Amino acid sequence: MKNLWNEQEAKQFSGDLNLRVYTSRLLGRDKSLVLHGGGNTSVKIIEKNILGEEETILYVKGSGWDLETIEAAGLSPVRLSHLLKLSELDALPDPQMVNELKTHMTVASAPTPSVEAILHATLPFKYVDHTHADAIVSITNTANGQQRIEEIYGDSVVVIPYVMPGFDLARICAERFKKYANENTIGMVLMNHGIFSFAETAKESYDRMIDLVGRAEEYLNSQQAWELPAPGAIESSAVNSVEIASLRRDISEAAGCPMLMTSSDESRGLDFARRNDISTISQQGPATPDHVIRTKRLPMLGRDVAAYVKEYQQYFDDLAPQAKEKKTILDRAPRVVLDPDLGLCCVGRSAKDAAIINDIYQHTMDVILRATTLGGFRALPARDIFDVEYWDLEQAKLKKGGQPPPFAGEIALVTGAASGIGKATVSSLLQRGAAVIGLDLDPAIESLHERKDYFGICCDISDEQQLEAAITQGVRHFGGLDILVLNAGIFPASKRIHELSSEIWRKTLNINLDANLVLMRTAHPLLKLAPSGGRVVIIGSKNVTAPGPGAAAYSASKAALNQLARVAALEWGPDNIRINTVHPDCVFDTAIWTDEVLQARARNYGLTVEEYKKKNIMKVEVTSHDVAELVTEMCGPLFAKTTGAQLPIDGGNERVI
Ligand code: ZN
Fold it and tell me: Where are the domains of the chain?
C-alpha cells in the first residue's frame, strides 16, 4: 500500500477544507481503496455564522462526487450539533434522515450529504476517512473474518458487525466506539463493508488509512493470498460476432431497453470464468454492499438469460414479502456475465456504465480469489444484499437523471468517419447517446474522440478481411450493431468517358459499391439482432438522379449503390431492418472537395467556384453537419415506419425536383 502524500503537492492546499480535498483525492487515486463514487470523507470546522455565532460544521462528501476528482464544493456543510442530536434518536427512517441532512446544511445549493454523515459526526475526530479497501473486504468476506481482523489489528481498530449503511449503522458505530475505543484506536473495520480511519489532521488520518490497509495487505501476503498467480497462457475461443450479438439481444430484452455489452479476450476474465469452482465462488454476492446497485447481486454464468431472469425473479419473490414495503424490480437483466468462451462481459445502459461495472468486477475477482486462498469467499446473506439492492435511497439514485438520450444502449458503425459527413455523423450519433464505431483509412480515426462510447478502427474497407475483422472487433467492444451508416466513398478527378481509364472505373466501383456490399452482407445478421430493429442509412448523391458530365465512375457507383439499397429494403424489411438513402449536394466541407476538384466541377458547368458552391434553388450551402443531423434523425423514431426512401438534402435542385 503506497502512501501518496507529497509535501510539495500538499502545499497547494491551504486550510482545513482544502487539505480535506487533497487527501480525499489521494484516496480516490488508489483504485484498490475506492472505486467510482465509493467511500467518503469528512472534516469538522468551526465557523462563524451570519449572526456572528460560532458553530461546528461537518463537511462531508456529497452525493454525485468521486473522491478522485472532488473539490471543496463537493463537500456538503451540515451543522454538527444537529447531527449529534439526531444520533441520539432511537430510530430514524432513511427518507427522513436525508431530509434532516439536507435541511441542516449551511449552503442551500450544496449536494445531498452522504448517508454516512451521522456516522462521521459521531466520531470525535476532526478528520474521518472511509474506504472499501480490497484487502479489508477480502478478509472480512471469509468465514472467520472477524477473528482474522482482531488478530491483525488488536485494539487499534473497533470492529463493527455488518449493518446496512444508514442510521442504524451510525448508531451501532457510535455505541461500539464509546464502548471499545481506547488511546490506541485509530480506525474502525466494518465487516463485509470497509474501513474508517480518523485523526486530528488530514495527513494523519490519511496516513492511518494507508497504515491500516497496508497491515491487511501484509497479512494477506503472509498467507500467500495477496499476489495472485498470473493466469496461464489461455487459448481464447473463436467466438463469432453473431453469438455475442445474440447474447446482447437477450439481455436487452430482459432489461426492457437496448444495452451495451463489452467483452474482451483478456485472459484474466477467461481464466476466472473457466475455473472449476466458478459456480460456487462467483455466486456468493458482491464484495461490498456499495457495489450491488451497479453489478446486481450475482453475475450470470454462461448465456442462458431466461434461466438467470427466472432465478432473479425467484430471489426477489422469496425476499420481497418480508421487505418493509413492496418494491419493484427495475429490470432483471444481468450486469456481469462470466462465460467460458467470452470471458468477462459487462453490461450497461451506456459505455461509461459498462466500463464502471468492468472496473468493479475486476476488483471483485481479486477479492474473491484472495478470500478463496484464505479458505473461502463468503459474502453477506441474500437477505442483507436484497435490503441494499432494494433500498429506497439507492433506487432513487437509479431512477433520477431524467429521460435517457434517444440512442442510449445502441451501437452505430460509420464508415469514412475521420472527416466530412462521416465525422459529423459520428458527433451527431454520440450526441444522441449511441456508442459509435468509426472506420477510416486515416489513422486519425483512432483518436477522433477520447471517450468510452467511441471506438475508432483504422481499416481499408475495400479489403474484405480487414472489414470483417473490424466488425468483429467493434462487436467485441460494444456487443452488437444497431445502426449502419455507409458513408465512405471516393470522388475521382473529373474525366470524360472517352478518357476514363478502366483502373479508375474499377477503383471507384470497388470502394463506392463493392465494399458496401461486403459490409451490408456482414452486418445483416447483426442488424437482425438489434433490440429496437436495425437501421441503415446510405450516403448517396445528387448524381444518382441528376448526374454531371465528367463524373461517370462516381455517378454510376452511387446509382448502383442506390439500387442495392432499394433491394435491401425489400429483402430486409421482414427482419425489422430499414434502409434509407440521403442524396446530399453542395456539401463543400468534405475531404473530396479539394480546390482542384471544385475548379474542375465548376468548369464543367461553366461557372466560377463561388457560383458553383451555391448552385441550388435556395442558394444555400449545405454543411456536413446538416447532412449528419438528417442521417441521425433517419435512424430515430421520426422515420420508424420508412424504408427504401431517398431524400435529397441539396438546397433544392431543378433536375431533382
Ligand atoms: Zn461505505
Answer: 7-222, 241-399, 411-592+623-648
Ligand 1: distance of its center to the CA of 22 in Å? 20
Ligand 1 centroid to 194 CA: how many Å?
6
If pLDDT is split at 50, 70 and 90, which confidence band does 229 have? confident
**CA–centroid distance, residue 254 to ligand 1 (Å):** 30
Rounded Cα distance between 370 and 450, Å, is 34
Judged by DSSP in three states, 75 sits in strand
The closest alpha carbon to 201, from 265, 135, 128, belongs to 128
In this prediction, residue 323 carries a pLDDT of: 55
* Number of Cα atoms under 13 Å in the Cβ half of residue 497: 5
Residue 482 DSSP SS3: coil
Say which residue, 266 or 333, is predicted with more confidence. 333
The topology under which CATH files domain 7-222 is: L-fuculose-1-phosphate Aldolase (3.40.225)
Residue 268 CB coordination number (10 Å): 18
Q: How far does residue 129's CA lie from ligand 1's centre (Å)? A: 10
Q: Cα separation of 214 and 208, whole Å?
A: 9
Of 560, 464, 589, 463, the closest CA to residue 521 belongs to 464
CATH of domain 411-592+623-648: 3.40.50.720
Query: How far is it, in rounded angstroms, from Cα 65 to Cα 74?
Result: 6
Q: What is the CATH number of domain 241-399?
A: 3.40.225
φ, ψ of residue 78 to 5 degrees: the values are: -120, 140
Rg, the chain, Cα only: 30
Q: Looking at residue 388, what is its pLDDT?
A: 82
Say if residue 192's pLDDT is above 80: yes
Residue 636 has pLDDT above 90, yes or no: yes
Predicted confidence band at 182 (pLDDT cuts at 50, 70, 90)?
very high
321 confidence band (pLDDT: 50, 70, 90): low
Number of Cβ within 10 Å of residue 279's Cβ equals 11
Average pLDDT, the chain: 93
CATH topology match: 241-399 vs 411-592+623-648: no
Residue 322: the pLDDT is: 60
User: Per-residue pLDDT for 555 more than 80?
Assistant: yes
Q: How far away, in angstroms, is 39 Cα from ligand 1 center?
A: 5
Residue-wise pLDDT for 349-406, tens only, equals 999 999 999 999 999 999 999 999 998 998 888 888 888 887 766 666 666 667 889 9
CA of 132 to the centre of ligand 1 (A): 6
Distance CA 494, CA 504 (A): 11
Instruction: Retrieve residue 488's grid coordinates.
Output: 465512405
Q: Helix 382-389 and helix 305-319: axis angle, to 10°?
A: 90
Residue in 548, 559, 555, 430 with CA at minimum distance from that of residue 485: 430
How far is 569 from 642, CA to CA, in rounded Å?
10
Distance from Cα 118 to the centre of ligand 1, integer Å: 13
105 CA to centre of ligand 1 in angstroms: 21
Residues 6+ apart with CB under 8 A from 616: 585, 586, 622, 650, 651, 652, 653
C-alpha cell at position 11: 502545499
Residues lying with their CB under 5 A of ligand 1, a single-atom ion: 194
pLDDT for residue 363: 93
Does residue 633 carry a pLDDT above 70?
A: yes
- How far apart CA 549 and CA 392 sit, in angstroms, is 69
Q: What's the pTM?
A: 0.92
Looking at residue 41, its pLDDT comes to 97
The answer to whether the beta carbons of residues 646 and 610 sit under 8 Å apart is: no
Interatomic CA distance for residues 167 and 116, integer angstroms: 8
